[in-house]
Amino acid sequence: MLFCGERKGESDLLSVLIFMVGVNLRFVEASYRGVVMFFGSRGQLGPSN
Fold first, then answer.
1. What is the pTM of this model?
2. Alpha-carbon span 49 to 44, nearest angstrom
3. How far apart are CA 17 and CA 10, in angstroms?
4. pLDDT score, position 1
């Protein structure tokens, strides 16, 4: 690790925060794709954008 001493808690918290944000972004993207595919297969979305 780059940090040592009293900075270790900060870096650990930052890495955990970054990890949680990345997981949330991936989950949001996956659920969005699922919703788009679901409505697209039913033919309700169409070429809206």
1. 0.47
2. 13
3. 10
4. 47
The backbone torsions φ and ψ at residue 28, rounded to the nearest 5 degrees and listed phi first, read -65, -40
Place of tokens 């070429």: 47
Query: How far from the centroid of its chain's Cα atoms is residue 21's Cα?
Result: 6
Q: Which residues contact 8 (CB under 8 A, 6 or more apart)?
A: 1
Report residue 39 as tokens: 């409505």
The torsion of the CA quartet 27, 33, 35, 39, rounded to 10 degrees, works out to 180
Measure the CA–CA gap between 25 and 34, rounded to whole angstroms: 14
Q: How is residue 45 annotated by DSSP?
A: S
Task: State whether residue 4 is helix, strand or coil.
Answer: coil
